[in-house]
Amino acid sequence: MRINGMDVFDATKPLMININKTDATNGKGKDPGACAAALAAMRSLGATKARVHLSRVYLELDPTALGIKSRESKVWIRYQTPHSLRSEIIALDRGGKVAPGAHKLIPPKPCIQLAKRKKQLRNKNAKKTPQRGNRALYHKVADVRARGANK
Fold first, then answer.
1. How far apart (Å, rounded) are the C-alpha atoms in residues 76 and 63?
2. Which of the residues in the chain have pLDDT under 70?
3. Is residue 74 part of a domain?
4. Which residue range is the domain that position 107 belongs to?
């Protein structure tokens, strides 16, 4: 996976971001690169860019500081968005305010890591299980930021 021509790597260690009052007041709704959480990540973690989405957080960091071997000077590191931060994002996108506080960004679970997904997509002989029973309706959160890291 690539964002703006740069490689994306899965995080291996959790990180804490602390949203303060300044981040909460300066954060813009429906903008993954300028919301309160993105501003807090850039301020506290030294990221040059941050994109905070409902399910994933992408941070542009120096790979040598993280122990990642890359030919590029900057790479994107992918985290899962914690439920607490997701709730704050929804509140901000719908015109509310973000409450200051700490949030723990966690590495992606093994089932959704980029390396595992590539292997799953390449496996052409994988069994396809039929859909069983009636599935519950999927709830889509309305009136929030657009999906996707490249938008």
1. 9
2. 65-68, 115-138, 149-151
3. yes
4. 2-115
